[in-house]
């Protein structure tokens, strides 16, 4: 079952659009895209953390205090 975000109508999973209001239902490809974006954001954060760590080690101690 899929839950329509617009009219809260429950639809069979094989339908792309809501039979009641005609709006597109959330599907697997959208979820995959969202997961990919979340993973990319995660690696961006990891890269940023590594960059900060390298900068902390690389900069002279006098500047950091
Ligand atoms: Zn609907």
From TrEMBL:
The chain crosses the membrane at residues 41-59. Keywords: Membrane, Transmembrane, Transmembrane helix. This is Protein DnrP. It comes from Pseudomonas schmalbachii.
């Amino acid at each position: 079952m899929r839950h329509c975000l617009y009219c809260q109508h429950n639809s069979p999973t094989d339908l792309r659009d809501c039979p009641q209001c005609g709006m597109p239902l959330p599907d697997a490809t959208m979820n995959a895209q969202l997961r990919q974006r979340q993973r990319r954001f995660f690696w961006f954060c990891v890269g940023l953390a590594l960059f900060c760590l390298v900068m902390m080690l690389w900069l002279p101690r006098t500047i950091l205090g």
